[in-house]
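Fold this sequence, please.
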Amino acid sequence: MVKYEGAEHYLPGHEDLRSLREAARGCRGCDLYQDATQTVFGAGPADARLVMVGEVPGDREDRTGEPFVGPAGGLLDRAMEEAGIDRGTVYVTNAVKHFRFTPAERGKRRIHKKPSRSQIVACRPWLVAELSAVTPEVVVCLGATAAQALLGPEFRVSTQRGELLDPLGEELAAAPRVLATAHPSSVLRAPEEDREQAYRQLVTDLHEVARAL
């Protein structure tokens, strides 16, 4: 069984976003690189006051190399606009930088699969380095994977959703506040009769972020 070293062994000497993005292309810190098309690094202004962290790239993100360009990204854009957040000022990324999927039984469709705890831990140094490079004021964790990557495996979005929490730990160059909410993909997966309510809750949480900025 192959033992992977984690992303810390691939971090560059200079941890600005350009250097991080280039170095991440060659990351072999976990097994996900073997089947993914490419690394999907974060995107957005290097001086963003707000960083949005999702779970893992989806199929479209894996093909294009850009985060949040699929259906969930479109819904997030709409929710941010409604909450009064300028999408062009936000840095978006994922807790895990390679697409994890299982092939469909028939056809070529690739079905998203939640990353394992070991894959989240292996990829965490990239996320910490991104946050240290950007130095945002607020970090929004979209879903449990992002929240647990930054706040620990015991964190539950269901109990502290929408709350602005104390700054993240000392390992970051800056100490942003953090808010956890649902991932937009969970809104898309909600039963049709519950979807509007799930979307409204996401917008409400993002209004709290807008006020904090």
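The domain at 7-212 is CATH 3.40.470.10 (Uracil-DNA Glycosylase, subunit E). The radius of gyration is 16 Å.
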